[in-house]
Design goal:
By secondary structure, the protein is of the alpha/beta class. A hairpin with a 2-residue loop joins strand 11 and strand 12. Helix 11 crosses helix 15 and helix 16 crosses helix 17. It catalyses: tRNA(Tyr) + L-tyrosine + ATP = L-tyrosyl-tRNA(Tyr) + AMP + diphosphate + H(+).
């Protein structure tokens, strides 16, 4: 097949990249691919450790999509075997491996979410349980013989844990070898991962050499910082935006990120050019953030959903100071039997609609003046106040807005 010129491919692929081992080898592989018409096999592996694929996962996935768009073959490794071990990369403590039942359940949802970024219909999808299920004890011993304890403990995460006296379990040492063996099985030309994955990717190069294969290119992408602006985006820290989250939720969460994250997010999560990004982030921060949030929503929910979400946001947080409710308000049903003479304690109403996690939090929000209801945005006088609840009543707590339906 015909590929774009190598220089054009490199201009696309190198944008946003953190480290490539090595760039010269990547260029040579691209030149050979261009000359022969044979696409590169570009590997990305993901362990089904939870139900939500989040924006942090999409940084290497978006790069994989770029390789696809340039005509190369995306090879998705679903870590049905490695998830049972747990990747130690970048971790201060051992990660609990998952049961086979948990892995199978999670794996079913992952591919659907990944399809929002990568064209899985044109990708080669391989669960690594496909080959590790056939491994016998002798095969595993042979694999373990490809590395040493000295080399394993040289990695930064293990060194830190040794100094801190934190346990390192032997099964964790198996993970990079398993990930590396995936590259041998699928004959990867390039492997994508985050910067904390470099050690594992380099193990893949070594195993390919030992198996008589040309070593893969280790192509790492920066780690996306989460909503807090400090730590890596992750499910365990609850600082993430999931690909399956509603447009309104994705938009609202993006609007709450620190201003200092915007350049990084634009570069890693959108297709805007460096010149565009530079111009956007030097403008008004709130408008820049709205554009970023709109780009994210448009990618995962479409342009129409993004336009509706922006319009609702502008109505709700109008610069003129005149606040309006958005056109699209989520509804919550509460039993009419919970009302007494058509009314309910404001504290109970907040808890029943789950605007707050507990009645204690509801009381605090009332005292802070954060809760209001109805067209006049009435605020309860105190924590003992009651609210006349009619079907369709709009209740608000901070940026949360719900329409109450009586069931």
């Amino acid at each position: 097949m015909a590929f774009p010129p190598v220089d054009e491919q490199l201009a696309v692929l190198l944008r946003g990249a953190a480290q490539i081992e090595t760039r010269d080898e990547l260029k040579k592989k691209l030149e050979r691919s261009h000359a022969t018409g044979k696409p590169l096999r570009v590997k990305y592996g993901i362990d089904p450790t939870g139900f939500d694929v989040h924006l942090g996962h999409t940084v290497p996935l978006r790069k994989l999509r770029q390789f696809q768009e340039l005509g190369h073959t995306a090879v998705l490794i679903i870590g049905t075997a490695t998830a049972a071990v747990g990747d130690p990369s970048g971790r201060d403590a051992s990660r609990q491996g998952l049961t086979l039942e948990q892995i199978d359940k999670n794996a079913q949802t992952y591919l659907t979410q990944i399809a929002k970024v990568v064209d899985v219909t044109r990708a080669e999808v391989r669960p690594n349980g496909e080959w590790f299920a056939k491994f016998g004890f002798a095969d595993m011993l042979k694999l373990l013989g490809h590395t040493t304890i000295q080399r394993m403990v040289e990695r930064d995460d293990f060194t830190k844990r040794m100094k801190a006296g934190t346990p390192i379990y032997l099964h964790e040492c198996l993970y990079p070898l398993m990930q590396g063996w995936d590259s041998v099985e699928i004959r990867a030309d390039v492997e994508l991962g985050g910067t904390e994955q470099l050690y594992n990717l380099m193990v893949g190069r070594d195993l390919q050499r030992s198996s008589g294969q040309e070593p893969q290119i280790c192509f790492t992408m920066p780690i996306l910082r989460g909503l807090d602006g400090e730590k890596k985006m992750g499910k365990s820290l609850n600082n993430y935006i999931g690909l399956n989250e509603p447009a309104k939720e994705q938009f609202g969460k993006t609007m709450r990120i620190p201003d200092g994250l915007m350049k990084e997010w634009f570069e890693l999560l959108t297709d805007r050019s460096d010149k565009e990004v530079a111009g956007i982030v030097t403008g008004h921060p709130n408008e820049a953030k709205k554009l970023l949030a709109s780009d994210i929503v448009a990618f995962y929910h479409g342009l129409e959903a993004a336009a509706e979400t922006v319009a609702d946001w502008n109505k709700q947080f109008a610069g003129s100071g005149v606040k309006q409710d958005p056109d699209h308000i989520d509804e919550v049903t509460i039993p009419a039997s919970r009302l007494v003479a058509g009314a309910m304690l404001a504290v109970d109403l907040i808890a029943e609609t789950k605007l707050a996690a507990s009645k204690g939090e509801a009381r605090r929000k009332i005292e802070e003046g954060a809760f209001n209801y109805g067209p006049d945005r009435t605020k309860p006088a105190d924590v003992k106040a009651t609210v006349l609840v009619t079907d369709g009543l709009v209740v608000r707590l901070g940026r949360k807005i719900l329409r109450v339906r009586l069931g």
